[in-house]
Design brief:
single chain; 211 residues; alpha+beta; 5-stranded antiparallel beta sheet; 22% strand; elongated; disordered N terminus
Length: 211
Amino acid sequence: MDVVNDTPDPASIVGGPTNLRQDGGALTHLRQDGGALTHLRQDGGALTHLRQDGTAQMVDVSEKAVTTREATATATVHSTSEVLTLLGAGELPKGDALAVARVAGIMAAKKTPELIPLCHPLPISKVTVDFELGPDTVVVLATVKTKGVTGVEMEALTAASVAALSVYDMIKAVDKHAVISGIQVLAKSGGKSGDWALPASPGAPGEGERA
């Protein structure tokens, strides 16, 4: 006996689950008419890493001007005051965590095109990784500089992220509940879009004493 499936195709239902979240709200990546927004920025411009058909591409930067470009990014590791005391004194079971994390961040910046598929290989001229120790946080500050045709925001973000992961790896033996948060670009300079910086606020990353 033939089995007939009477369940309609969800894609054929107007206003069906293809454009609704499980809680009933509209998916933010779909227009109200059901069309995809994956190739549009919030300001209406096209995302440069997507072609018109929605497939990924590596952006052609061959016509862009060579300028000095720099970016600073941050990440924060949250732990306990006891762990931060050990960290600052270099007395963790695995040794000097900040020295290891600094090298990890520098290496990560240079490896960014191998980790982020659509990033361009760039001639990195400088990488610095610093740390601000608070009562229960370690703020990572990574700055990357190049002279090239595209920016180094991704390199700075990768450096900050991996340095924070390295700190986590070094402290997890004494704090399994440590958390990494606040990964973001703080500032960039150079290129057609010009300079940009995150508005400063009291206690913002970059205002404390660095290690």
